[in-house]
Amino acid sequence: MQFQYENAYDVKERIRSKRAAILPIGAVEAHGPHLPLGTDNVLAERLAAKLAERTDSYLLPTLPYGQVWSLRSFPGSLSVSNEALVLLLCDIGESLHRQGFRVFAMVNGHLGNGTALKEAARRLAESVPELKVYHFFYPGSKDTIARVRESPPVHGAYFHACEIETSYMLYLAGELVDMDKAICDIPNIGDEADCTPTPWETFTETAVLGDATLATKEKGEAIVEASLAVMAEMVNRAKERASG
Amino acid sequence: MQFQYENAYDVKERIRSKRAAILPIGAVEAHGPHLPLGTDNVLAERLAAKLAERTDSYLLPTLPYGQVWSLRSFPGSLSVSNEALVLLLCDIGESLHRQGFRVFAMVNGHLGNGTALKEAARRLAESVPELKVYHFFYPGSKDTIARVRESPPVHGAYFHACEIETSYMLYLAGELVDMDKAICDIPNIGDEADCTPTPWETFTETAVLGDATLATKEKGEAIVEASLAVMAEMVNRAKERASG
Amino acid sequence: MQFQYENAYDVKERIRSKRAAILPIGAVEAHGPHLPLGTDNVLAERLAAKLAERTDSYLLPTLPYGQVWSLRSFPGSLSVSNEALVLLLCDIGESLHRQGFRVFAMVNGHLGNGTALKEAARRLAESVPELKVYHFFYPGSKDTIARVRESPPVHGAYFHACEIETSYMLYLAGELVDMDKAICDIPNIGDEADCTPTPWETFTETAVLGDATLATKEKGEAIVEASLAVMAEMVNRAKERASG
Amino acid sequence: MQFQYENAYDVKERIRSKRAAILPIGAVEAHGPHLPLGTDNVLAERLAAKLAERTDSYLLPTLPYGQVWSLRSFPGSLSVSNEALVLLLCDIGESLHRQGFRVFAMVNGHLGNGTALKEAARRLAESVPELKVYHFFYPGSKDTIARVRESPPVHGAYFHACEIETSYMLYLAGELVDMDKAICDIPNIGDEADCTPTPWETFTETAVLGDATLATKEKGEAIVEASLAVMAEMVNRAKERASG
Amino acid sequence: MQFQYENAYDVKERIRSKRAAILPIGAVEAHGPHLPLGTDNVLAERLAAKLAERTDSYLLPTLPYGQVWSLRSFPGSLSVSNEALVLLLCDIGESLHRQGFRVFAMVNGHLGNGTALKEAARRLAESVPELKVYHFFYPGSKDTIARVRESPPVHGAYFHACEIETSYMLYLAGELVDMDKAICDIPNIGDEADCTPTPWETFTETAVLGDATLATKEKGEAIVEASLAVMAEMVNRAKERASG
Amino acid sequence: MQFQYENAYDVKERIRSKRAAILPIGAVEAHGPHLPLGTDNVLAERLAAKLAERTDSYLLPTLPYGQVWSLRSFPGSLSVSNEALVLLLCDIGESLHRQGFRVFAMVNGHLGNGTALKEAARRLAESVPELKVYHFFYPGSKDTIARVRESPPVHGAYFHACEIETSYMLYLAGELVDMDKAICDIPNIGDEADCTPTPWETFTETAVLGDATLATKEKGEAIVEASLAVMAEMVNRAKERASG
């Protein structure tokens, strides 16, 4: 299932049968006192592994560097530019296409990568239109999140190291969470943050956007599994179309 | 030791004491019937882990995509451009510098990445001269290789899936080698291959450049450890200068 | 108030007193049967004029070409790349800074420009940190929209030629709306549209996303004025900080 | 006639019949005490409107930012790079082609844009050879200028805010000219200005290159109409060829 | 005098005393039946040598590839892009500055290079403002040309392989001219050639723009020497300012 | 034989018969006290002339600027970027292809150009696959060098202004060598120089890497002729394939 553990003699035929490649992409970024810097990598990798399994697709090695503009001044954050990401992802997509893949699903664990992933997907739609490209950031999770969450969201789009993301980790990588250190920190993010470049140190010292102490494995499981089902359905449908 | 498993609260102080970050970089590339596509990633990662340990440095997550022009038409190979790699590595280097690192060592498992790594190192020497940048591709291994090898090299610069590289894997990741499938395939690579773009399918069908059946864990250990000692000395000296 | 109608002899002193420049940016794009192709330009321009007036700022000439990837195959749409927009906006921002401006507010009438505007604002935050840069796309309008709308939104982020946008036009440029031609067309936009490049012809033939017949000038006025108040407050605060 | 006031339902058929799109492009730039900063925008826009009318073509919205290197330090000037302009104009040209246009005429009001317009036209000649591209900067006006001018030219190529350009404005936009403030300022521009980067503050304080007091509406009309006739003939011929 | 024939031990001191470097730049381009493809290179090189001698400056090796868009389809023409030229010239200029030069004069033998040279000079004016940069294309020759020419010019800006350019060659490199093959070919170049991309095969089969049979060494000498005097004066003045 | 001395009328037919173009490319770079700055240009040019003669190919004018990162701080060195070189070489290659050439051999006199030449050759292999591209840096010389050299090499890859390169000059351009000034300077270049950006002033003051006093014309002849034979054979074979 892990592409890089196959050998070149066996892989040719298997690509032809699997047709789909799943790329986890995350970031190295401050996630408060209770979560590791690599949280987004771990989430993307484990989510992608599940997706690969459910859709009989290949799991590619994780791309562990992401665009972390907002948190780049927090200790431990490493940030790369949209430009570098877009070029790299287009190269990977074109290589996959040349190898015979027809579905390329990027499983993204870090919101900040969204712009680069969308741009890369659009460029690939021009250069290799035969390749169906997905960029997933927990699609189809909205209703479940609304149902299970106990603390209100602190922002319309951001969630970070909070009840929600910590729950994901508890479900997918509980061994990396230190709930004893989990905190509740509810920042006041004004309208202005959406209208002007706003590094997060402007409104938080902890990088925790909400109440991480409310996180549970069960909440994580509910949301992650709901999203997985949505992703799996899309990938499976695309595989069918590619074979049809 | 693994940077991405630290959290943002602890990491600040530790960066200040460790000073050095080690980045493994490899590729996904055909390596014959007995080695996995991710051989260069596995080698870079394990070598880098040893280097981090010996020098009390941070190990960064592996960058698993490389420039695979020569083998890009072999089953399973994925190739990215020099341009994308250079941009990404410069971004990572500048981020490390902003975080307080003063030594950045790239441990490269794939010869084809050499051009991009050298270019990135030179650009970083301009943009963040305070950061000492290394690009390692088994430095200081020449004499030991000459001593232990039983089959002659097939080319002045290339070694691939052969006695030497297979020995590295037997030492660092024996569980991923299937010696029962190892073969001997000695291609005739003419002068022209160094003077004009020459995809490797021109001279090999197997992607094995030599006699992989002669590989042993002992040979791998001898070479890898010799190189590790050389790398560790450079990194340690650079750390001292950075603290001095 | 209109910057381009000033002359070079008078303008120097006035820039020093006004400090802020407002740039309308829109697009030429299909907007159904009842709205003109230039709807986003007209909205941006008139909104920006009001903002300039309320904040005693200069109104710059409208940049009338935008990124219209999603609708580029609809009759009349003209699309430019994010890359071109970002370069142009950075050049304009740096010129404004050299001229003595300290606040640069882009009033955007077209959602598709959002990525480029955000990227330009971030680059300007590096190159001319003294210049406060805003990218406004109807900020602070969410609650009012929720209150006045009679038809449900067809998507979490998109609104287009619908009850809402048509209401904006009725308030700001009623003479350009032909309500006799307004239609109701409620497309079914699946989750997949957010996860893969999806030109809008996939789900709509009209480019109207909802019920344009429900539009009224009053709804438009309520939303636009709410948003104007939010923008004006941000710009005024920034002007004060720049003078302080 | 104004493209952006059409709607998407009607425009498709009309593009097929008109075939030609006229783009005014100018700049925001110091033009002495008697002319507005937007002089080049106003001239381009009104000239383009006349050209569109005479050739039954579509008038596109004005691109109001240009390359103003030479005057960028004068109060009120805004300058964008050749690179940004070229990218934007190529994008617009390719979009026009996709929409069915076969003639794209850029009516330029600002000499400094010439390099970018010529480069864009050449790139479009490669990428969309079916599209005939013109870049007009008062073509065919030389003889008439020589005939009507009373003051000698101060430079072989430049004219600016002088007898000639002020006359254009008196004819095309008299309401924006304040002849009471018109001055005569005859700079001494040496050979060196053509051989080395020479910002205009080197040789003028007013940005008026000659005797603006001699400007008349009649001179402007004579020159502008002569040039219009030349442009109209080219566009009409190109339209015929495109339909033939 | 020829920079590349100096050695590294002597050159340091001499750069400090000479201060100025002269770069010939030409092109490989069709020049009719009587002139060689390298005419522009030969002219630039010999003119530059004279200029270096008169101003006690260093002569750099000739850059023999230029932008030949208009004639690129004629036999023997080789064309490079503006982009490549600009990058290369900026690199050379910055290197010269680092070496201690303070005046950099490009002696251009090919009109088509003008755009790139001007752009490079402007970029260098930003990056190394201490370096005075000239781009010379026969400056100060206008009056002499008007005086000596017997055939009228066929275009306001172009001259090529004609009475004028052939005269330059007769004066500077007579041994490379075959006057027996010289022809008279007067093309009709309409206004349109200045307004739309127009490869020269549109209006000439010979690439001779005028009457080459009227060329004489004396005409060439008169024009070239007039221009040389103008160039020498500018360079000498710049050298004085740099030393002052 | 020299391309630029042909005229456009004769050259068309001759290109069709010769098929191959040889481009010398060198650099301006410090070469110790006994060799000129233009050593690499002179070597490339004379070597290329011999190759053109032996293979009945066209000799192109020399590109005399190269990538001189390592020595750029030595007196007299001029350096251009890989990026500029790659663009220029790709443009030249594509122009040659358009002119009917089918073999393009770059004869390189400067090791530092190797990266750019290899990259350019690969890009041309994509854009004009019909054109066979060579990048030669003394191919096939290894055995002869090993046989004739009296002093040991100071580095695995670099040779510079030493016994070997001085011998090349004595054979190809003896009039430019001042053997009275030749010196022996054996630097200690550690492993680190291959692993981190290392300007040569770190390990040498003279830029002579070895014992130049041992150079002889005979050694130069032996090596150069051996390499010429290898190059000629490759070019001739490629010409045959192109005609076949």
Automatic annotation (TrEMBL), chains A, B, C, D, E, F:
Any one GO biological process: riboflavin biosynthetic process
GO MF assignments: hydrolase activity, acting on carbon-nitrogen (but not peptide) bonds, in linear amides; metal ion binding
Keywords associated with the record: Hydrolase, Metal-binding, Zinc
Domain of life per record: Bacteria
Cofactor(s) this protein cannot do without: Zn(2+)
UniProt cross-references to InterPro entries, sorted A to Z: Creatininase-like_sf, Creatininase/forma_Hydrolase
Similarity section: Belongs to the creatininase superfamily.
Protein name: Creatinine amidohydrolase
